[in-house]
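Sample A.
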Amino acid sequence: MKDKYEEIGYSMRDLKEIKEILES
């Protein structure tokens, strides 16, 4: 379970960064 949560956390971080890049 811990690995799953870590993967989700990392993907969420990546999505936020990608969103910021696309918006700018």
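Sample B, a different protein:
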Amino acid sequence: MQRCPGARWQLSDLPRRAMGANPVPLRALCRRVLPSVPEQVRCIRAYSGRMKYRHLHHAGNFADVHKHVTLLAALGALKRKEKGFLYFETHAGRGVYDLADSAAESRHGIGRLVGTECVAAPLRRYLVLLEQLRAARGGARLYPGSPWLAASELRAQDRAVFIESVPEEARALERALSAVGTARIRAEVGDGFEKLRSALPPSQGRALTLID
């Protein structure tokens, strides 16, 4: 595994028994890992400042499907309690994508899932939301990003903040979220890590953060 310059910690540095048959206690593991988190965040930010990544070329691929189904499962778990929560994204993207821009990758992701019968509730919910978006916007090639999916799942007591560093993408995100029609959502342009720091701890006492 290649280390990020300046980083002193990586997954392989953990004791072997941390992930073995007799794992170490979570508290002990956190004592080992957490002190390095600020350094890792600085490293990620240094690299992301030089990245020229646009998610539209990868929307709907296998990794996207896995991420979005997992997100819906996590949101579903939070919604088992009546108490509201904060949902926060540090790198939100544009909200809705045209799969014509990622046809090669999406064909092996969402393209293989559409039309199948799914047993797991998060998968079924994922496909329902996909069809809702396409029906509302009249586009068979449209694909929802994580902000659109999360915003569609919020209840009256929940809140969401979406941060995007690229102004053009942030404007597209605002347009996509306006169709969801809720005042509980805020989209901003800026540094997602800095804004996350100011948002925690949330007033709701519960939060789910997506850093992607």
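Observation for Sample B: The chain has a mean pLDDT of 80.
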